[in-house]
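Q: I'm teaching a short session on how sequence maps to structure, and I want students to see two examples side by side rather than one. Could you give me a first protein with its sequence written out and its structure tokens following it? Keep the formatting plain so it prints cleanly on a handout.
A: Of course. Example one:
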Amino acid sequence: MPSNAADLELVKLSKRYGQTTAVDAIDLRIPAGSYCCLLGPSGCGKTSTLRMIAGHEMVSDGDILLGHRNITVLPPADRGTAMMFQSYALFPHLSALDNVAFSLKMRGVGKPERHKRAHELLELVAMTPYAQRKPSELSGGQQQRVALARALITEPRVLLLDEPLSALDPFLRIRMRAELKRWQHELGFTFIHVTHSQEEAMALADQVVVMNAGRIEQVAPPHEVFNAPATEFVARFMGGHNVLRRDGEAIALRADRTRLSRSPQGDGLSLQARVEGVEYQGSYVLVTLATEAVPELAAQVPEAEFFGAPWQVGEPVFVSWAAGDVHRLAS
């Protein structure tokens, strides 16, 4: 981990736009050297939070601490953070090399020194052969690498990424995901990545922060967010869960732990339903179910099991689960 690594802490941080509260007094500590994903639907406050950390939005209330420094009111260049924008925001008239070196030029660093550092970073992101190309001559993935190198040249303690993969095609998105994780591991400093993609957050993050309506619903490692969602919102947003109500409590049941049968199982943890839809998903078949007790219910049936005795739309079904497979949700 770099010697200047430091925890980032948000203390009662709020952002208001007129009468609208976009971020509502959130508290969050992001450990130094970790990969943190701010995850949630559009309008949940994740991008406003990132922009406040970057200094591109003024804080309405609260504080942003980086190590022992309060950076809440500092200009972006003095915070120790760097932001990689969703659009990459490369200068179209400059080469890849000069795009990367630009911030050092603005700081008065001489051409030989800034180009030397820019070449080092282009090599890090495997873009050395394209150093003299303009952004219009680069693919989306190549532009992203240049944008990353440009953000890194200021030697930030925290790199902020605003939906950096959203403009890429699915194949390239998966490849660049792996590269972001590798770069974060090799560089050793903190990455804070905004995304609305559950899959992206699960693949990248050490720490997932699920946001909803300007507040934090859960902060946990990816496997914990998926296996033990804190609230009904998290269970539904992450997907792959059924939300049931038993004895006045809300419980989450993973769809891949939801069993289907043509006769009652006799353990009491079951209900009757009707097959509403069947979707082949490769390794499993998603069977959606209609029941009065649970408005939205689904089961992931392993491919071999399904095709051994296929379910048909309209067929009655008994839905069951093991007691240990349900997880209590906060009210």
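Q: Perfect. Now a second example for contrast.
A: Example two:
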Amino acid sequence: MRSNKEKRDVNFSVVIPTWNEEEWLPGLLSNLRRFPQVAEIVVADNNSIDQTRSIAQNHGARVVIGGRPAVARNAGIKYTSHDLVLFIDADAAVPASVLRRAAEAFDDGRIAAVHFPLSPIGGYAFSRVCYLLMDAYIGVLSVLGIAQGAGTFLAVRKSLFCAVGGFDETIEPGEDADLLRRLSRKGEVRYDRSAQIGTSIRRFRIENPLIFALKTCGWAALRLLKVRFSVGGYNWKPYPKGLGSKDRSLYRDFISMREEERSV
């Protein structure tokens, strides 16, 4: 049941970059359709060869030509109608509390962007530790006035996003951290630790977990130092069939648990 305090006068446009996301996208789209704040959804697709595009269209989303993540997000936002935009990855689990907190944050005209800690869904100990360390890292930098973060879920003010030129398509990965750093020059970037976004650990499952974690730390360090190049490229690999299907019940449990916590 929706809280009486839930803001209904805020309209968010949603942009989702996709590439062969037929196993994750239906859950995200069904979840987003529950929220009165979500006014429209744009799926920027990178020539998927599975059912991603038809799934998006069947859920009422607008499908446009995308590309790699930065390219797709920049392409998708051009088709949005509202000044508040949510960039959401297809494997994200979004509880109602996140939409509510994001809507409340933008009541403050100084806010340029809002993002939240990520919580691994179905993760083993190593992945959970990695996400805890990432939360601590971003939290400490936030206190120091340095905006950094991941692109799994980013709420931005479109006018300021356009003012800084959007995502830098020449930076990969870490274009999300670079964007937040530039947005912080136009307004406040808020890291709100009162709610969490669920995310899959699929990258840990298709790569060596330790190597992937070390690469991620390296990319974060380079973006912190404002270095544009990357060491150890990010390969946008296809995921094995059935991997997303295994996560569906875990996603439902994550969202249900977070919403029950908020209702107590």
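Q: What should students look for in example two?
A: Point them to this: The chain has one domain: 12-263. Also worth mentioning: The two ends are 12 Å apart (CA to CA).
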